[in-house]
Amino acid sequence: MPVRRFEGRVAVVTGASRGIGLGVAQRLVAEGARVALTARNDGPLQEAVDLLGGKEYAIAVAGRADDPQHQVAAVQAAVETFGGLDVLVNNTGINPVAGAVVDTDPAAIMKTFGVNVVAAIGWARAARTAGLGERPGAAIVNMASIAGVRPAPPIGVYGVTKAALIHLTAQLAVELAPRIRVNAVAPAIVKTQFATPLYSGREQEVAAAYPLGRLGVPEDIAAAVAFLAGDDASWVTGQTLVVDGGVTLAGGIG
Fold it and tell me: Is the peptide bond before 211 cis (omega within 30 degrees of 0)?
């Protein structure tokens, strides 16, 4: 069992009904946290709460990640239910288009930026207003991507939003210091429903480009998030931790 670095602490994890978000929530709860989970659909969220051990450990607040009212409601629910707020994990992201950036519908570009970047600002604002930073050890962890580190065709729009999120991470780290640390994790391909189109039917071929010989799993990313959100990283802020199985070392992007 992992050490209980989050005993007595409260977290909000967005996009947490499955995949990386659920993996992060599982890791935080295993280390002692109480967690408010958010995602669009209530049914899968309730299943996630049950998986985490029930309402003693987690609550579900359904809504759109880019809805400011939902952001406020979710962080308030965390505070009211568990007595405070210590960690925000901005995990929600969308990738609705593929192809050249210059050929992409501007409305789709704006929607992607709205969810992947603007919403992260809104969540940070709502969390700070609700008390994040009032207790020692406050942290925000944003979910970026290696697509934001280097060009990533055919998911260029998604990559540009993640590059913006990486810069936003550094900006918020400066603005919210010293009371709140802000860092990001940049995964390569992780075996989730979200990333399935990137490896479905050819996992061994894709994994062959990774020096460590496999694709990621949610537990890999959850471990990195737990480090950055915990006191072991108390002198780390404004950084983006690449967790990619070595694929960028080998010249790949995923």
Answer: no
Please, are residues 145 and 224 in contact by the beta-carbon 8 Å criterion?
A: no
Domains and CATH numbers, the chain: 10-243 (3.40.50.720)
Reference 13, options 50, 65, 54; nearest CA is 65
| Tens digit of each residue's pLDDT (9 = 90 or more) over 206-248 | 999 999 999 999 999 999 999 999 999 999 999 999 999 999 9
Distance CA 153, CA 219 (A): 26
Residues with active-site annotation:
158
Closest CA to 39 of 149, 234, 194: 194
Q: How confident is the model at residue 254 (pLDDT cuts 50, 70, 90)?
A: very low
Taking CA atoms, 164 is separated from 94, 112, 129, 156, 235, in Å, by 14, 11, 23, 12, 23
* N residues, the chain: 254
Express each pLDDT in 110-128 by its tens digit: 999 999 999 999 999 999 9
Q: Which residues contact 125 (CB under 8 A, 6 or more apart)?
A: 71
Which residue's structure tokens are 């049914």? 43
